[in-house]
Specification:
This protein is α/β, with parallel strands linked by helices. The chain has 13 helices and 12 strands. It has 2 domains: 247 residues, Rossmann fold (3-Layer(aba) Sandwich); 97 residues, no CATH class. The strands form 2 sheets. The protein has an 8-stranded mixed β-sheet with strand order 6-7-8-3-9-10-12-11, sandwiched between helices. A 4-stranded antiparallel β-sheet has the order 2-1-4-5, covered by helices on one side. Strand 1 and strand 2 form a beta hairpin.
Length: 385
């Protein structure tokens, strides 16, 4: 059974002049139990906004405009003795609970979502090195999370668990008595990971977990996440602008641009059989150790404004493969394999399939070849189209 289903989620930020910024627009993806799923894209594409919206941690001017966030979890007040939703809860349409036990997080109140955070879903924030309270000992902050969701647990037992968690992520247990300023950047990152695992959640959201760390510490942090996943069976939603991180840790992933998902599917399909011009551009801008004299090619232009964006494909102004249809409406997600096999465009319903939001998904062979040429990505070439 799927652990997380995000269906057609749209998020806005209100601004002072009365307009709004459409930070995420019709985003859909799913995460399976024990899976690592990645959201990748350049800064400002909506990745962090999505992460925060899942657990109601958007800034005060942010709000979910539409869509659903279904999680395989039930609030404690709605559970029977086996941890499943009581029949009367499922049958009552006023409760955001499906017959399969999934709960719509987007429909929960502020108080209700507090029963979900840490217990079912935990977030490692993007600014993890500033996430620890400077006036509380690190161990006490982990203990507080445990006691919030497990009131029958003694403080002594919670303290022991906090020290054990710190040890699991490579921090000496006695450092639980230290303050955040006594930790290095890598230690703070590990401490936040330990805190996130305090209540053994089913889903761990890691927002840029390796940002501001050197490559050695980055590798160790990724190893820690993989070990925790193997030990606890937790699913991980990783958010990053670094596609090399995705290549190392993810099972499936989605590539975002301008608040939209441009391509999604198994990691191997995304990297080996890339099916979207934006993803091809991202790959061109990252070095590889497999090619001795590879020149890096940047995507010309700048990301689109998300304040009432115009109709059409979000990537059209920077895309060297744009056609007239791209200016009319943003393309839906098409099944890449079906388009290649049948020579026609088929919209995909299966979120696990390799999908691409591109009107030329049936012309991938030529597009992939042209995308490797530096001259294809010159601003003048794109403008002439």
């Amino acid at each position: 059974m799927t652990l997380l289903e995000v269906n057609d989620l749209s998020i806005r930020y209100a601004v002072e002049d009365g307009s709004s910024v459409h930070a995420a627009d019709g985003v859909s993806f799913s995460v399976e139990p024990g899976e690592t799923y990645g959201l990748v894209g350049e800064s400002g594409c909506g990745k962090t906004t999505l992460a925060k919206s899942l657990v109601h941690l958007l800034d005060s001017n942010g709000y979910i405009e539409s869509g659903e966030v279904w999680l395989d979890a039930t609030l404690p007040a709605w559970e029977d003795g086996n941890g499943d939703p009581r029949p009367e809860i499922i049958e009552d349409e006023s409760y955001p609970v499906r017959a399969d036990g999934m709960t719509n997080l987007a429909a929960l109140s502020t108080e209700q979502i507090r029963d979900v955070r840490w217990r079912d879903v935990a977030l490692i924030p993007q600014s993890a090195m500033n996430a620890l309270n400077p006036v509380y000992r690190v161990g006490d902050q982990i203990v507080e999370a445990i006691l919030r969701h497990e009131p029958n647990t003694s403080k002594r037992e919670a303290d022991g668990r906090a020290r054990d968690l710190l040890e699991r992520v490579g921090i000496e247990p006695e450092r639980a008595d230290d303050y955040a300023h006594q930790f290095s950047g890598g230690m703070k990152q590990r401490a936040v990971i330990a805190m996130a695992m305090a209540c053994n959640p089913d889903l761990l959201i890691a927002d840029e977990p390796t940002t501001a760390l050197d490559v050695i510490i980055q590798d160790r942090i990724l190893e820690e996440l993989e070990k925790l996943q193997e030990e606890f069976g937790v699913s991980i939603l990783v958010i990053s602008h670094d596609i090399s991180v995705m290549a190392e840790i993810c099972d499936r992933m989605a590539v975002m641009y301008g608040g939209k998902v441009m391509e999604s599917g198994p990691k191997e399909d995304i990297f080996d059989d890339t099916a979207n011009p934006y993803t091809l551009g991202l790959k061109n801008s990252f070095p590889t150790i497999t090619e001795a004299q590879q020149s890096l090619v940047s995507i010309p232009g700048t990301p689109p404004t998300l304040r009432d964006p115009e109709e059409g494909c979000r990537f059209r102004e920077r895309c060297p493969f744009v056609v007239e249809e791209c200016h009319a409406t943003h393309p839906p997600m098409y099944d890449v394999e079906a388009a290649a096999a049948d020579g026609r465009r088929l919209e995909a319903g299966d979120q696990r399939a390799h999908r691409s939001a591109c009107y030329r998904v049936d012309e991938l062979e030529s597009i992939r070849t042209d995308a490797t040429q530096e001259e294809t990505w010159t601003a003048q070439e794109i403008e002439n189209r």
